[in-house]
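Deliverable D5.2: sample structural annotation.
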Amino acid sequence: MVTIRRGEARDVAAVQAIATRAFGGHVAAIGRRPAPMEADYAVLVALGEVLVVGSPRIEGLAVRRFDGGRVLVEIVAVEPDAAGQGLGRALVARCEDEGRQRGCTVAALYTNAKMEANLRIWPRLGYVEVARRVEDGFDRVFYEKRLE
């Protein structure tokens, strides 16, 4: 059974370390550190926007926030040695479920165009590409999924 809970202040160092390991392999392709490596996880945890998965060891995280009728899935990261176990998928499902509970009709996210594996993953999870644009110096691909 997968244990997902809200991130707490005691989790910040682990969350930052997971994001660094999960996204570190993309630095060369992007030409700089991906945005999730630069996020202020202490602030995001304090705002209640971070979910963590794993017990007792944290093995993944998601950052989500609610904006009107949308749940924005801003970051999903899993420890490289825990990849392929469905933890990322479980985190995304939890974000979507929380969105539904809050009356959201859309789940939205973006990824970097250079993260080719992500470009294959999101459509498999029911997300449809809706835009591409440069934001904050990153070439981003935007996706949405209708929440029923």
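Annotation notes: The radius of gyration is 14 Å. The longest strand covers residues 70-78.
The annotation will be released with the project's public dataset once the embargo ends.
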